Amino acid sequence: MDKFHSSLGIFHHALEGNVLKAIELTGQLAQDILENNNDLLFDLLSLHFVDLVCSKEWAEALEFAQTKLSPFSVKEQKYMEKIEGFMSLLAYENPVECPMFHLIGLDYRQQVVDSLNQTILGWLTSLYSVYLIYILLQISILCSIPAKYDLQSLSFCLFFSVDVGDGQHTLTFPSTLPWSGLYNRPQ
Q1: CA 178, CA 151: separation in Å to the nearest integer?
Q2: Does the CA dihedral 114-119-33-66 come out positive or negative?
Q3: Helix (H, G, I), strand (E, B), or coil: what is residue 41?
Q4: CA-based angle 101:102:103, to the nearest 5?
């Protein structure tokens, strides 16, 4: 449940304009969420760029675009096109006059935060699903133990590993299972 509550803080920071903090907290929650999702990371960084432009911190916005956004354009052409759209905001003293003004609107921010929300919830769902499978496996092992054994003194060690679906990470649950007092099996 702590991870779920942490995710609420992430969304709050992203919506309120503290996107760099949201990125930091997302990395603390699960480092690979943003490492494996360039589109989402780019969109979050672009929100910070928009915040700098709206605050009229043009020099800082330009430097941020050069250091944080432009490396994405090396990976794929679509990022170059997006960067050009964001950079056009700098050409106007009042960004609302820019043809790309929709990028500074709440709708764009909400779209990015919704994408972040879906990504984190998907990650949490897979994490809790794996944990539920782990618990069910423990219960099934316990139920398969013949009734002649005294469960009050029984304990055993279970190691359970599952690929979380991203092709790169495996969750491992080592556990010593003491069942004394936890389960009263009918005789």
Answers
A1: 9
A2: negative
A3: helix
A4: 85
